[in-house]
């Protein structure tokens, strides 16, 4: 069965600083990996996803993530944080041939300080 | 505009009542899902449906029921058997299921509070 661990339920950065949100997954077969963002009282919006091919994936709002099979990781980064990046971020995993379930991590709340 | 519409946004339920959350999508997606979100718990799958007139239980189906009579609609009923229903409920849909790597799109969510 797949699982996702997001390290750090809260991350705080200064505006203009690097954003790094960590995600490790467990899957017995090659995974499909996703990052979603959620603003307060709203649904989730896809930031980026990895299915096959290039392991460095670029998404919306300047975010990117790198799939590292050897480390079973899919960390989310952004070179320079903006105040509008303050939100909760969720990593999720599914796999080919698996159930139709997308398994989510517990989320990381990002605070951006001026 | 194409998307997923959930209603109502806020709903209050008295003890012992059943309530139904509506979810409609005009994306022509085959698969639809209901997730429950509690603070610090991430999202947990309640039910999902891959085709009309068929649905499967997720991880926390007890106390909930669904129907899928039309492709665009997937209502969720929270029954009185659900002991702790206060949560944020998210409806989602995708072209095919998660096992195909397809993106799952989410509605804006519905808050249910027991009073």
Overview of this protein structure:
The complex is a heterodimer of chains A (114) and B (115). Chain A has no helices and 11 strands. Chain A has strands at residues 3-7, 10-14, 19-26, 31-38, 44-50, 56-58, 64-68, 73-78, 87-95, 103-104, 108-113. In chain A, strands 2, 4, 5, 9, 10 and 11 form a 6-stranded mixed β-sheet that branches. Chain A has a 5-stranded antiparallel β-sheet with strand order 1-3-8-7-6, with no helix packed on it. In chain A, a hairpin with a 5-residue loop joins strand 6 and strand 7 (64-68). The radius of gyration of chain A is 14 Å and the shape is globular. The N and C termini of chain A lie far apart (41 Å). In chain B, strands 2, 4, 5, 6, 9, 10 and 11 form a 7-stranded mixed β-sheet that branches. In chain B, strands 1-3-8-7 form a 4-stranded antiparallel β-sheet, with no helix packed on it. Chain B is globular and about 40 Å long. Chain A binds chain B through residues 9, 32, 34, 36, 41-46, 49, 51-52, 90, 94-102, 104-107, and chain B through 4, 31, 33, 35, 40-45, 48, 50, 56, 58-59, 90, 92, 97-101, 103-109, 111.
């Amino acid at each position: 069965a797949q699982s996702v661990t997001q390290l750090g339920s809260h991350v705080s950065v200064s505006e203009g600083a690097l954003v790094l949100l960590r995600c490790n997954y467990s899957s017995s077969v090659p995974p499909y990996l996703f990052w979603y963002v959620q603003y307060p009282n709203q649904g989730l919006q896809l930031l980026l996803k990895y299915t096959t091919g290039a392991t460095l994936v670029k998404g919306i709002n300047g975010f990117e993530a790198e799939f590292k099979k050897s480390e079973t990781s899919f960390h989310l980064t952004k070179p320079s944080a903006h105040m509008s990046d303050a939100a909760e971020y969720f990593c999720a995993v599914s796999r080919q041939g698996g159930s139709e379930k997308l398994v989510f991590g517990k989320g990381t709340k990002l605070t951006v300080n001026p | 505009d194409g998307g997923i519409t959930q209603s109502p946004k806020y709903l209050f339920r008295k003890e012992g009542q059943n309530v139904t959350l509506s979810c409609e999508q005009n994306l022509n997606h085959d698969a639809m899902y209901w997730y429950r979100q509690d603070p610090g718990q991430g999202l947990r799958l309640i039910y999902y449906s891959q085709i009309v007139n068929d649905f499967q239980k997720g991880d926390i189906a007890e106390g909930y029921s669904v129907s899928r009579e039309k492709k665009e609609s997937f209502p969720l009923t929270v029954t009185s058997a659900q002991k702790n229903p206060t949560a944020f409920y998210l409806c989602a849909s995708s072209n095919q299921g998660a096992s195909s790597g397809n993106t799952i799109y989410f509605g804006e969510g519905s808050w249910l509070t027991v009073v």
